[in-house]
Amino acid sequence: MIIMVINSGSSSLKYQLFDMGRGAVIAKGLCERIGIDGLLNQKVPGKENINREISMPNHEVAMRVVIDSLISSEHGVLKSLQDITAVGHRVAHGGDVFTESVLITAEVLDTIRSMIPLAPLHNPAAIMGIEACSKVLGEHIPQVAVFDTAFHQTIPQYSYTYALPHELCEKHRIRRYGFHGTSHKYVASIAAEEIGVPLEQLRVITCHLGNGSSIAAVKNGKSIDTSMGFTPLEGLPMGTRSGAIDPAILPFLMLQENMDAQQIDALLNKQSGMMGMSGVSPDLRDIEEQSEKGNARAQIAIDVLCYHIKKYLGAYTFAMGGLDAIVFTAGIGENSTLIRESALAGLEGLGIVLDLERNRECADDARLISSINSRVKIFVIPTNEELVIARDTQKRI
Q1: Catalytic annotation on 260?
Q2: 364: pLDDT confidence band, cut at 50, 70 and 90?
Q3: Do both 240 and 355 map to the same domain?
Q4: Shared-domain flag, residues 347 and 224
Q5: Which domain does 345 fall in, by range?
Q6: Is 298 helix (H, G, I), strand (E, B) or coil?
Q7: Are residues 209 and 323 in the same domain?
Q8: Which of these is catalytic: 148, 225, 324, 392?
Q9: What is the reported pTM?
Q10: Which of 265, 330, 384, 391 is the most exposed place for a label (fewest CB within 10 A)?
Q11: Which of 385, 381, 384, 355 is nearest to 367 (CA)?
């Protein structure tokens, strides 16, 4: 069974092709600058990589380019598009409607459209990807929507409710939704496998740390809380996102700086976070480098991030009544020795003891970095959201 996984952006289309029988990725690629000029990158094991400019005025054309490249005798891996059994799509927002992945129908697509006000940048892009696949592959090939928000639909009402007038929350669907659900779900399950105990018997905190970051409390296999909220802006300071701040700062700035709602939105999402604090870059690698050279603003940005991670670790430990494992994943979580070490420092009283030597080792697979004296297991586990999407797609067809 061959399953294609699609992650569609407003001007991009990422794809991976899974041979589910072998459990292997047989091709992956990225279409960039769709609607501008077009750039295709594709990798197939044993074949020459593709890296060339191709005109892609829209997602439908981009999808045709992808199929042509996949069935190419020189660069491809398929005999024809009929080799594709199904397509799984990453969809950012399923609101409070979708608690799991679903086979896409006209009704499902209409519901995803109704969620556009909750994810105005992401859901329209996913819809373009779904519609492009329907036109290029044909209506007979099943497509499945896998939602970033679905895993967090188990969060209890007292955790997802904001202290705003009930009528406004009901009218505008205002509540905590959470994101990165496929990543949190995947790494929590791998941690359970590493420990040798069913996930349904564990209390795990998963830290997805990248340009966008979120932390989740996973108790007995279910998400009970997560740092991102109504939007992906809440929670930790991120590359360019502020994370949680005093909401009164917003009207204050609007008055003092004569800013409108659009400017405030840009400030919070594109000019704040690690970039805003450090004045260096949204990329943590650049910030760590400048910190080592004595840049005080770079160092305080690192300190702020680690302190907030530490606060979530403590809060979620108490929310779950204890803790069995912590998982670090995504770009920063998997690669920054410094962030892991700093965020976990001083938590020995909670049974969280890092092995400094293990933490500094580099590996591609899941690795244990806690001390033998640590009651809580600490892991670095590379995330694989595409594999989760492929598996969910296989289950739904």
Answers
A1: no
A2: low
A3: yes
A4: yes
A5: 197-380
A6: helix
A7: yes
A8: 148
A9: 0.90
A10: 265
A11: 381
